[in-house]
Design goal:
This protein is of the alpha+beta class. It has 11 helices and 5 strands, in the order ααββααββαααααβαα. Strand 3 and strand 4 form a beta hairpin.
Length: about 240
């Protein structure tokens, strides 16, 4: 038997103050180079090595444009023929690699996840750093890859609006995380993203910026590869 919510909560009185004003969400402190952190996490359950790198990204309050630029850049790197995939995965350095961004009102995280190929473990990290160093290069991706990324993001949004259940969830998410205008104007704003926009985004939030790096291994892997300093693997 389904009990109506009004039966349970109907006698609750509204709060006399705005809880978000009384208890505001704290800002994420900006990182400086000294805040960068790297660590090796040991887990008996690890079957393959797993690397994650995180940066503080843009948010929808102070840098709306770059939240969309971040989506486009991540979509470019996910393409099978991108340099990121061909130089890391197809070359055999990594079993899987990707760069993700989550749009948030309070500091959206940028996360790079990579599964190093155990057969090329020691060289994988230098290969990854080489790719990050090229993120803002003029020829790092083609015009076609840029346009494909925009089309894929636009089609995903259009498709999501065709299913009522998905549409209501998406609308409420963007209403909380950004605004209704952000949601309804997303496709046309994504189409405006340029190569220069992506270069500025990479330089502002990723390349040379403070980050947190973590590598998960099992004790046997750590012993075989003599991993004690994660930063040293990138040099």
């Amino acid at each position: 038997m389904v009990v109506p919510l009004k039966t349970i909560f109907g006698d609750w009185k509204p709060c006399e103050f705005d809880p978000f004003q009384k208890w505001p969400i704290p800002e994420a402190s900006a990182l400086n180079p000294l805040d960068s952190l790297s660590f090796v996490n040991l887990s008996e359950n690890a079957r393959v090595p797993l690397l994650q790198v995180g940066w503080l990204g843009p948010d929808t309050r102070r840098d709306v444009k770059n939240t969309m630029v971040a989506d486009v850049f991540s979509e470019i790197l996910s393409q099978k023929n991108s340099k990121f995939q061909t130089q890391l995965v197809d070359s055999g350095y990594a079993l899987n690699a990707g760069l993700n961004y989550i749009t948030q009102k309070f500091t959206g995280p940028i996360t790079l996840q990579l599964i190093p190929n155990p057969a090329k473990f020691k060289n994988t990290f230098k290969a990854l750093q080489d790719q990050i160093n090229q993120f803002d290069a003029e020829d790092y991706y083609s015009d076609a890859q840029l346009e494909i990324a925009k089309i894929k993001l636009s089609n995903q949004e259009k498709y999501g609006r065709e299913v009522t259940s998905n549409y209501t969830h998406s609308l409420t998410f963007w209403w909380c995380s950004a605004s209704q205008d952000y949601y309804f104007n997303y496709i046309q704003e994504v189409k405006k993203v340029s190569r220069e926009d992506i270069q500025n985004y990479v330089r502002k939030y990723i390349k040379g910026q403070p980050c947190v790096k973590g590598l998960t291994l099992n004790p046997g892997m750590q012993k075989n590869w003599n991993v004690t300093d994660l930063d040293a693997l990138f040099k």
